[in-house]
């Protein structure tokens, strides 16, 4: 499988020797309560709080991020989205387990991380656990456009979920420098990827709104096909896939960054003489 994100020290551009991975889609095999839209990019749990396990349609490439945005929440349930990887072929699962944790994990060759409102960061080796739990401020997109994870660097722009602008957006979200979305909130973006190691294993990393939570699992079989696992569990009702740009940024992305750089805050974009679709793209994407 071709590497999906540009290695940190490599100057090679995407081309025939390093093709970009195909767009991500949900697998047609999923939990009983899941409905996937015709495009394969949106998964919704239609009842109950369980039977919401989904998979990527294809195995991930090393460094490829399977990124979802939380679209709908449902009150009254305890628990949130769960995210991970499996070496099991989804087509071989009949039936799909009710839960990713513990049912799918108990089948073996599966690693799943339960997303919580706080404390998702994994302590680094040799660092105190309190440091991992401490909140941090992600670098602004205009200063550090790439997220670096082991040997990969990933365009940060679309990794970050953004709330809908409100009355006080100019105070909370100046120049897109602050991410104020909790991990489990609507429009929050969460992703999973794996990074191969020299010993033939791989580390699984979880990304939450543009921040790497650290290696949440180690020792994954890097030589085996690894599928993404998304459990649309409990208070998380619907998610949609977000596609990333792994090569050079598109002209559309560059134009958006120029517009954002010229604005004091997102509400100011409404005053520009631009089509509404372009304004929404600059504010929300």
Automatic annotation (TrEMBL):
CDD domains: SPRY_NHR_like
Residues in NHR domain copies: 23-244
Domain spans labelled SOCS box: 250-285
InterPro entries: B30.2/SPRY_sf, Neuralized, NHR_dom, SOCS_box, SOCS_box-like_dom_sf
Pathway the protein takes part in: Protein modification; protein ubiquitination
Protein name: Neuralized E3 ubiquitin protein ligase 2
PANTHER family per UniProt: NEURALIZED (PTHR12429), NEURALIZED-LIKE PROTEIN 2 (PTHR12429:SF8)
GO BP terms in the entry: intracellular signal transduction; protein ubiquitination
An example Gene Ontology molecular-function term: ubiquitin protein ligase activity
Cross-referenced PROSITE patterns: NHR, SOCS
